[in-house]
Amino acid sequence: MYKNSSFKVGIIGWRGMVGQVLLERFNATNGLINQAIFLFSSQTIDATSISLNAKTVSFERSDDIIALGQCDILISCQGSAYTQHMLPVLRQQGWHGYWLDAASHLRLDSKTLLVLDPINQVSIESALMNNQKTFVGPNCCTSLLLLALQGLYDKDIIQHVDTHTYQAISGAGSTQLKNYLTQIHAASTDINLDNIIQTCNQLEKNNHSLLNNVIPWVDVLSDHGATKEELKFAKEATKIHGKETPISATCVRVNALRCHSQSITLTLNKNHPLDDIKHWLSHGNTWIKLIDDDAPELLSPKPISNTLDIAVGRIRQDSYRPNVIHLFTIGDQLLWGAAEPLVRTCQMILTHLNQALGTKTDQVDCVK
Question: The domain that contains 68 carries what CATH number?
């Protein structure tokens, strides 16, 4: 047995949506209860504004290199630009701590590991044993898709995946979500229930960019006509699985508040009985919830929001191609799609550090 020691954990960008969900999960799991927590922000924060289950909580500025460098673990929800600037500075100044990141900047870097522990826990543990220090969460839709299909990937029967995503406004960030809520408020003055046609015409005329709309452009276009969001699926899935994982995608922004949905078409290696498909899907991981066709109200974002459930339904065989399966899946992109892999990896790192200590009570020297 080993004695749990206190380590210094810094959370950067904790005031944003992903950061807030990250703190909620740490509180719910008591994952930081023995640790000294540093909350880094670009603004000075009143220390009474947050309650966190931790040994101590300190508030620091996100540009304070000295304070950052004192942490054993840093978790960044601040975005790619921050990572691109700050991490090299820290490393150059001799910081050897663990860096966990929600942003895309380092995902395909050969020196980083994408973390989604229900799928690649062994790889994470091996990386820790090999003294790897940089870990990054995958793209939100990639994580949710791989978790939904884990049972079939484990059977090695998938030849190709074609997914169409319906991504919530909150996935675009807090500014876009605030704009959307503002548009809802503004549009209420145009609603006339006695004349529905006139109301619809008025709302469309006002050109509310998010309200009453779908936008088939998530991220920017690449040279090949796909958006960068769409190209992330195959690249990141291949890195997580350690082998080529073909995935084609069309990503659409819809005006749901939270949770990303995906309509998926699977090409399998042969015609498998549908009952077997459902059985394998349901046993992929603990969080899969198969939804029967007679409970359509459960296959929507609202019952999945703010849970770790991965809903999978509309499972059916293609009418013309017996080796092709269609299904629909929903997951909370702020949880499994962003915060949860970082929370769980942080806990794995803390366990690794404590195991490295053995029966010692002195702190592992990560920062020098």
Answer: 3.40.50.720
